[in-house]
Automatic annotation (TrEMBL):
The keyword Iron does not apply. Gene3D superfamilies: 6.20.240.60, Cell wall hydrolase SleB, domain 1, PGBD-like superfamily/PGBD. This is Spore cortex-lytic enzyme. Belongs to the SleB family. One of its GO terms (molecular function) is hydrolase activity. It comes from Caldibacillus thermoamylovorans. Keywords: Cell wall biogenesis/degradation, Germination, Hydrolase, Signal, Sporulation. Residues 163-177, 184-204 have a biased composition (Low complexity). Residues 44-99 form the Peptidoglycan binding-like domain.
Length: 323
């Protein structure tokens, strides 16, 4: 009889604990965001929370200002990709729920920092006092930032994807000769005369020829890959462009001897489709699915032992992307 009473008490206690735990999770989700879908162009408290949570996880490194611009858009897409969600740049119910469970949001702290005019307001994983007393613009908390987000720099939150890209501008100078997929012996190239854009209506720092060459390379290297894999190849080209170990022009990166298979076998001269062109613009305007890779290879065909020694970041489609 005593045993039965103990078991009944234990069962009741376990039921109450389970109920409180589940209620707590749902309550936390319920308090996160409003019911509306948050999309580009939105402003207000929902966007502040969205930016804060993305910054807490390291996907967003810009200013928390409550304006859903392109920088927030690309950070959200990277979050969706990394967490296995539909990649649409919309903060719907599933995305908000995943964000709420994966991150923390101190509303009072964030809004206090905004009211004080601080450029960065929440980093995550760092004591709040240290965030407040960090370097200029609160940069102390930057230790937890991930390199995933390749969003355009600057304060223009309403910039269109195919418009001016401010993240690449300072690095787009004329550079030596070319480089691509996974060559072992890379030598720093000597910078040449800075190249000027040859046409309007292209991202700042990139000429029409740059865009065309990149589209050719993406088409030749990855036309059978999923769209995100094509963006990833374009991102590798741009990552090399910013690296001191590679040539300093798009043409230099692409045509560096032994760099890209498509150059070696002539497939780079195939006419690129619209998907390849779109992938190039998406990469230029901030999307780097690779997490900063400068090499990639197909594990089914790669015979170079050196490329296998590179630190691997992730696999997208048939390609493994490396540092």
């Amino acid at each position: 009889m005593i045993t039965r009473k103990k078991w009944m008490k234990l069962t009741i206690i376990m039921f109450i604990c389970t109920f409180l735990l589940v209620s707590g999770v749902h309550d936390r989700d319920a308090k996160a965001f409003s019911n509306q879908v948050i999309q580009i162009g939105a402003v207000g408290d929902d966007v502040i929370e969205l930016q804060s949570r993305l910054q807490y996880l390291g996907f967003y490194t810009g200013k928390i200002d409550g304006v859903f611009g392109w920088r927030t858009y690309w950070a959200l897409r990277n979050f969706q990709y990394e967490f296995g969600l539909k990649i649409d740049g919309l903060a719907g119910a599933k995305t908000k729920q995943k964000l709420a469970r994966a991150s923390q949001y101190n509303e009072k702290y964030v809004k206090d920092q905004i009211n004080k005019g601080n450029k960065f307001t929440h980093y995550g994983g760092v004591d709040l006092n240290k965030q407040k007393t960090g370097g200029k613009d609160g940069a102390a908390g930057k230790t937890n930032q991930k390199p995933t987000n390749r969003a355009p720099q600057g304060n223009n939150q309403n910039q269109k994807p195919a418009g001016n890209n401010q993240n690449r501008n300072t690095n787009q100078q004329a550079r030596g000769n070319n480089q691509g997929g996974g060559t072992a012996n890379q030598q720093p190239a000597t910078p040449a005369t800075p190249a000027k854009p040859t046409a309007t209506n292209v991202p700042n720092g990139f000429s029409q020829n740059d865009i065309k060459l990149m589209a050719n390379a993406v088409h030749g290297e990855s036309r059978g890959e999923p769209y995100i894999g094509q963006v990833a190849v374009a991102a590798v080209i741009l990552n090399r462009l910013e690296s001191p170990s590679f040539p300093h022009t798009i043409a230099g990166v692409i045509f560096e001897p032994g760099a890209f298979t498509a150059v070696a076998d002539g497939q780079i001269w195939l006419t690129p489709n619209e998907t390849s062109k779109k992938a190039v613009l998406d990469a230029i305007n901030g999307w780097d699915p690779t997490g900063g890779a400068i090499y990639y290879f197909n594990p089914n065909t790669a015979t170079n032992k050196w490329i296998w020694s590179r630190p691997q970041i992730k696999q997208i489609g048939k390609h493994i992307f490396c540092k």
